[in-house]
């Protein structure tokens, strides 16, 4: 018996137990059995070195998204202006890329990425099948070629970073596992010291934030608080699932250019 059948059985038992109107039961069960959850969606990852793209010679990343019965999932809802978001992070968390593979139809997405070196990488895909939950699928892949010397993951003593002329201060209201936590990024102009008031929406939000634990196992969704303006503050809600060291990447857009600022934090 597969998971979906168990789920249906569970739902029918539940509905039989709860409902005094038997005529409605079947309708609700049918809806529940069709809804796609992460457990009945499978992702196959294919990596092929030596492909050519506009950006150079790179590695093809192909994602096949299917139901657990092998049927491709054909339709996806747009989230933050894209059908699928792919995050690529090196094992030592020093390399980060956020890309949007092209949808080829039939549940297949493809992109060519120029990796900085060989070795292990974490691939993380966020998407929402039409008629299903928002979901995340992750994989480790190992690329041929010489791996780079690992960069140690050390918590930052200073949470002010300067990237491409932008000085960004990160404030975290509460450092603890499993607590509602607010991250505030405050952006000022490096040269003038003036607060930046010209942040542009990036993928339909004031910015995007990705968080990954040191071991690559805990990927944290971060949601921009709605209705934010153009800076200097960008506010996000999140939760660290357990104690440990995490890296946080914030991505913001100014002058039609996206910049990425990263911090390593220790969650007690
Ligand atoms: Cu994206």
UniProtKB/TrEMBL annotation:
It comes from the Bacteria. Keywords: Signal. This is Uncharacterized protein. Residues 1-17 form the signal peptide.
């Amino acid at each position: 018996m597969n998971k979906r059948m168990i789920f249906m059985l569970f739902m029918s038992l539940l509905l039989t137990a709860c409902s005094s109107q038997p005529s409605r039961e079947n309708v609700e069960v049918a809806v529940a059995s069709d809804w796609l959850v992460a457990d009945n969606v499978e992702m196959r990852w294919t990596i092929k070195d030596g492909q050519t793209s506009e950006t150079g010679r790179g590695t093809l990343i192909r994602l096949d998204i299917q139901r657990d019965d092998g049927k491709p999932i054909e339709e996806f809802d747009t989230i933050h202006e894209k059908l699928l978001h792919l995050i690529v992070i090196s094992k030592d968390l020093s390399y980060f890329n956020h890309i949007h593979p092209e949808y080829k139809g039939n549940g297949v997405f493809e992109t060519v990425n120029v990796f900085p070196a060989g070795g292990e990488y974490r691939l993380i895909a966020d998407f929402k099948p039409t008629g299903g939950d928002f979901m995340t699928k992750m994989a480790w892949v190992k690329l041929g070629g010489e791996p780079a010397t690992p960069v140690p993951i050390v918590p930052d003593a200073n949470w002010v970073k300067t990237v491409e002329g932008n000085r960004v201060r990160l404030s975290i209201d509460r450092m603890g596992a499993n607590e509602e936590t607010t991250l505030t990024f405050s952006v000022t102009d490096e040269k003038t010291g003036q607060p930046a008031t010209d942040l542009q929406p990036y993928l339909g939000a004031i910015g995007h934030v990705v968080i990954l634990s040191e071991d690559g196992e805990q990927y944290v969704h971060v949601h921009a608080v709605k209705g934010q303006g153009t800076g200097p503050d960008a506010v996000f809600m999140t939760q660290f699932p357990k104690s440990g060291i995490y890296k946080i990447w914030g991505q913001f857009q100014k002058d039609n250019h996206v910049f990425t600022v990263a911090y390593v934090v220790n969650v007690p």
